[in-house]
Structure formats: structure tokens, C-alpha cells
Amino acid sequence: MISYPQVLTIAGSDCDGSAGAQADLKTFMARDTYGMSVLTAAVAGNSYQISASHVMPVEFINAQCAALAEDFTISAFKTGMLADTATIESVVENIQKYDFGFFVLDPVIITKHGNMLLEESAYQTLVNQLLPLADMITPNFFEAQKLADMKITNDEDMLIAAKKLQAMGVKNVLLKGSHNDDSQTEVRDLLLLENGETTWLSEGYIKTDRVNGTGDTLAACIVSEIAKGNSIADSVATAKKFTHAAIKNEIAVGHKFGPINHFVKL
Ligand code: PXL
Predict the structure, then answer these.
(1) Ligand 1 atom showing the smallest separation from residue 216 Cα
(2) Residue 175: strand pairing partners
(3) What is the CA(14)–ligand 1 centre distance, in A?
(4) In this structure, are residues 204 and 218 in contact, taking their beta carbons and an 8 Å threshold?
């Protein structure tokens, strides 16, 4: 029998397969890990827009976690769309009750196209209850500014913001750089490790609308690499390379904001 590291995403379903649990599961498979999913919500959408969403009952989230904990040895997991306060509270309870291993918190708040995936009133619960349990947080530029409560305009600000997040209780911070200026040539992310070490990761800027699920994929790839036994720094470096390659090698799916390419090999 072949054995693969077992990994988990606690996230929303995105029916068009570009983001959320679907992007995570594709990434888990692409990176040679066995992926599982606890669904917190489901959204109806395509490459144009999200048209509806539905939150799972807390009892059903509990049932999914219990079912997995009873049978599997999960060595790393991530969270994605957590929708509302009750969902976050149930996720907090479940991850305190069961050991799902290394925890990457992708603080999904709002999509690139302005859809709220976390109720405003739930934000404080995420910060106070979930964030201190995370081994790593992976905010994008906007989420980092909101979480650190500051404007970020340069590298120095990124480091100050990352340290603020660490002071809020999360061990390791991967702060994703800005990528909203078509004149920029690179996207620079900052990794701040628990021991205070910093690493800058850079890849070329790619001008494309086909970036749905990028944040999900990056975090899912980190989970897979950690589960395979790699260091945090190596896992993040591989995840950055994989996500960059998945954006660069575009696939023809959908008419507008398409998915990235999870078939890509490094
Ligand atoms: O990429 C963020 C994201 C996460 N989870 C779900 C989504 C999206 C973006 O569309 O639909 C379920």
C-alpha cells in the first residue's frame, strides 16, 4: 500500500472549482497529499460573480470534524471561508477538541471582486479566538492592513504589520505583497518566522484576470509541504513557486476571472 500525508481544509465550497475547498483539494492532490474537506458554507458562482451563498449548520460542521477525527491521522490543515460568528466558534471548538496538526489560517474576509465571505460582526471573533490558535497566518495586502490596523506603503510597513500580527498571537506570518499596480514588475511577500527571522520572497508580476483561488492555493500548498515534513521556510518557498507557475500557465476555463492552473508541475 502507498501512504500519503493526510491534510484537511475547513472551507467553503466554490461551485465553479476555482477557489475555496475545490482549489484546496486540487492543490493537495497536485502536491502529492491526500486531501479532505470540512465544508463550512457553499457559494454559487462562476468566473463573472458570486450569486448566492449558504452557510452549513454548526451541527453539520461538528459531524464532519468528528467523522474525520475518528478515522484519520491528519498532519496539517487550513481554514478558508468561515462565514459568520457561529461557524468560527464551532471551528475553534473542533480544533481544540481534535488534533489536526499544523494550522494555516487564511483569513478570508472579502474576495478580489468585493464579495464578503466573512460577516463584519464575525471579524472580531476570528481575531480573538481563532488567530491565537494558528501556526501561520497568510493575509493578503488588504487583510494585513485591516488586521494590523495600519496602512502599508513599503517594505518597512510590511515588517511592522507582520510583527503586529505576531503580537496578536499567531506564530508565523506570511504577508502577501501588493499586486494591484500594472506597472510593477515583481510581487514581494514577507515571511516572519516565530524566532523573528525574516525572508522576502519575490516572483515576477503577471498581468492577468485569471487569479481566482490564488490565496487558497498558496495556503493549501503550504499545508501539503508541511505535511510532507518540510520546514516552514521551504514550504512557503515551494508554495510561492507553485502558485506563481499556476498563474503563469493559464488555462481556458470561464469567460472572465478564471481559475489558476492546478495541473502545473514544478
Ligand atoms: O478565494 C477566496 C474564496 C474562498 N472560499 C470560497 C470562495 C472564494 C472566492 O471566490 O468562493 C468559497
Answers:
(1) 1
(2) 190
(3) 6
(4) no
Q: Which CATH class is domain 6-248?
A: alpha beta
User: What are the sequence ranges of the domains in the chain?
Assistant: 6-248
Q: What is the pLDDT of residue 26?
A: 98
Q: How many CB atoms lie within 10 A of CB 208?
A: 12
The pLDDT assigned to 111 comes to 80
Q: At 126, phi and psi to the nearest 5?
A: -60, -45
Using a 6 Å cutoff on CB, does residue 108 contact ligand 1?
yes
Phi, psi at residue 209, to the nearest 5°? -90, -5
> Which residue from 39, 78, 108, 142 has its CB within 8 A of the most atoms of ligand 1, so it is best to mutate?
108
User: Which parts of the chain sit beneath pLDDT 70?
Assistant: none
With a CB cutoff of 8 Å and minimum separation 6, the contacts of 78 are 8, 9, 10, 11, 24, 103, 104, 105, 106, 219, 220, 222, 223
| Cβ–ligand 1 contact at 260 (below 6 Å) | no
The closest residue, in CA terms, to atom 5 on ligand 1 is 20
